[in-house]
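Dear support,

I submitted the protein below through the web form. The confirmation email said the job was done, but the results page showed an empty box. After a refresh the structure appeared. I'm attaching both so you can tell me whether what I see now is the final result or a partial one.
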Amino acid sequence: MRYFFRIAYHGTNYSGWQKHAGVTTVQQVFEDSLSRIFKTTIAINGCGRTDANVHASQFFFHVDLDNAWDFDLLFRLNNVLPDDIAVFDIIPMEGQPHARFDAVQRSYDYFIHTYKDPFLSRFSSYYDIKDWNLTDMQRAADLLLKYDDYQGLCKTPTRNNTTICNISEAMLFVNGTGDKLRFRISANRFLGKMVRTIVGKLIDIGTGKLAVADFESLLSNPESAAEIKPAYPQGLYLSKVTYPYLDVPARTNFSQMLAGKGDTWIKV
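What the results page shows now:
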């Protein structure tokens, strides 16, 4: 029987989702934990990849388990997992749906705070910038929906069969006091470090280092890309994964928490 697991994790202590030899990854933690519980080797398939120190407030993986269990697997698994990883649901699926290949949309949120705060340092990215040109940043974000080749915003474009992505949403928000920013983007797929690279360009636009016209030139002529400088990883969250047969709202309210006590996000 195939099962989808809906999970979340704080990525600070991990070298991303995908397992690699010699480092600790979220996938490896899950496979080790499930293998201990079922006393057999368990392999899982995730809905995508996240880089080192990147978080996920919603993530799915699937696993095939031949035999039913007579215990509370959700409780037992959460009990053995570290505090920075959680399982919300275990969903039995008919047929052979695939957690990665069947996803039709993924959404990411990127959070910035503009003052040094030890309680935000691992949840949001600190950029000591007081005066942002938010209008130009949103103008640039709007341009993302007009193009579909993002080779110029990918760290390693040659590793992909195609650099075509269909972006359906790119919005900038600011909190009421103006000292925190949030960028939200949705697409059918993303390239390596693509979201962080976009955020890096938006930061350059917001601080006057890059003109909106030059950003559009990068989109219209993707092979002209020069320096790729991704934004810091700790501000990035995979926040929503949607399937044709499964559309579950996010469990955690991290977005509102990061806006600030009693504050809210205002669209630019």
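Response: this is the final, complete result; the empty box was a page-load delay. DSSP finds six helices and ten strands in the chain.
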